[in-house]
Amino acid sequence: MVFQGGITMKFLIHFVEAVSSKKGRWVTLLIWIVLVGLLSAIFPNVNKMADNGAEDLPKTSMSVQAEKIAKEQFPNNSGTPLLIVWYRDGGLKDQDFQQVTKLYKHLKMNPLSEQNFIPPLGDIPSQALKTSASEDSTSLVTPIFMDEKASSDDLTDNLSSLKKYMESNLSRDIVDKEISESGLHVRFTGPVGIATDAVALFSKADITLLISTVLLVLILLIVLYRSPILAIVPLIGVGFAYGLTGPILGFLAKQGIITVDSQGISIMTVLLFGAGTDYCLFLVSKYREYLLEESDKFIALKKAVKHSGGAIFVSAITVVLSLSTLLLAHYGSFHRFAIPFSLVILIMGIAALTLLPALLAIFGRISFFPFIPRTEEIVKELEEKKGKKLRRPSKNMSKKFGSFVVKKPWTVIILSVVLLGGLAVFSPKVQYTQNLIESFPKDMPSREGFTIMGDHFSEGELAPMKVIVQSEGKDLPIKEKLSKLAFVESVSEPIKSSKDENYVSYNVILKGNPYSPESVESIPIVNKEVSGMLHDAGIKGKGHYWIGGETSKLYDTENTTNRDTKVIVPVVIAIIAALLLLYLRSIIATIYLIITVLLSYLSALGASWLLIHYGMDIPAISGLIPLYSFVFLVALGEDYNIFMISSIWKNRRTQQHRQAIANGVSETSSVITSAGLILAGTFAVLATLPIQVLLQFGIVTAIGVLLDTFIVRPLLVPAITTVLGRYAFWPGKLWRADKLEKEKIDSEI
Q: pTM of the full predicted structure?
């Protein structure tokens, strides 16, 4: 194997030996303490630099261009709208309209700090407001326009002040009481309301997620390894990696080099604790094995590093490069994940090969207390001193499992493929949505306000489609043509630009929900109609019409994420294939390792859809999930394959084919099962959060990790390796050596 036999691996071994030596261990620990302390004191933490308002769509998208043209040709300095939804079941009363008038009189005299403009609702009779209420008279929507440059913190403070005033002067529980209760209700929604709710939701989620993840990993480590010290040691390594990554990312964000959002920070935390603990366990498990053979803990650690260091190194590099492919994405949310995720894995990989060995060298055998691994000689000495027999840890508890796989490989392959294939069949049936607001909890105030608007006003009025044309002075029948479309409710009169009268804008009200998949599919039809009209009028070339609005944004989002998936998926596969080929020197092994992980991914998607759709009654999952989960599951899935297959490859140098596989499976079974449970558990924590996109991502990833841990890695991969025999190593040295041995035996016969 190139890394184990080459200069890179030799340097790595010598380096790790140095940092975990008697003197180097303390120096290494001190360096990490100084680095984390210094960077934390100088640079802001990444959590403080989150920008949840960052754009997701590229500037070339039609909806983004439409928004830009609208600002240039149809300037509106009102600001960003905060929509106040007033609702009373059974109908709004006169006193309710008087409350509205009272509020706007107050805002006129005492404007909010970020208030930019308000309509003169405080100057008109409350009776006149009734004409703006919904047809059933239960609802009214009034706007407050806020400064477009206001920060999320300032907007949150403004809404808090507004809420306090309303509860003090209008009604005590007007903002917070349940919609099902009687009386007048107020909900803040629109762009400002949704943005501030999202920030609050993610802020709470970050704290909950961090505490839940740490506790879960701690509990699982104690249960699996029955050692409180060993449970803490990996968490110390992960904690230092977290402490180093946060300030570095905070610095990069402050300098404008990268942009981070709360969603990315949440997933990054889970990734660090899950994958980071796995890397630690890979080394810890080997250290424990060699402590049973070596009395000197430093020699045992040296052998553990030599055996597992290459696998940890390649695994980390595989994940780092796979996650880096997100830099190829055009969709902002994908692109923003690349640097934080790659960096956190890179730093964790460094910590696993420097800080963790140093900690293990410091703690030594006591790390495994109370079940301390000792050599037979040490055990006998202690027995003589204490005068009683001591418990001897088993070197291997999984030999029968490994033997079963190599004895009945075809049975294992058929059963595994049937199970995974059966689940994968459901993956094409998954329904996707790009509607962001559906990812928020149903009881989130801004979503409740949005729902009230949709239920009591025309759904199309929630987000009109905006069609802008550069008519070159020609009279175009746009209103007439678009009004005839089956999905269009109405089209406004043409609005001419105050700067250039050749620019004309139309507001198109759809009959259905503008966020629904059916409405999104109407964009190409409108596009074709407008393009045809311009062509018929002799107006040719690009840059003469634009379609904007929320529906157009969803359409562009769908196209952009589809493009990113088509680009990134093959690149990830190519990178992993190249690394596996370099590491294993086997084309055949590279092919079937990638195929098994892809099958595992499709199975996870299908199984998750059964749970999310039929079990949780969710009609569609976020359109971002497939690419998110693909990059994570394929990269992390190969982690386990690399660790196990490296053990088989090592054994194959001195053992018969089936024996090498059986021993490789049994040697890695315990640690990979433990690592898989911890990784799946940390991602499952996301499923406890009230944010749909994180819940769905957590479920898909957790199921994928479990399928890989309990079916693909211990069953399917070794069974395929068994069936392929020496061809599994083709065309590497192991294949050639096995071929020569076979030819020698044949000639002797």
A: 0.83
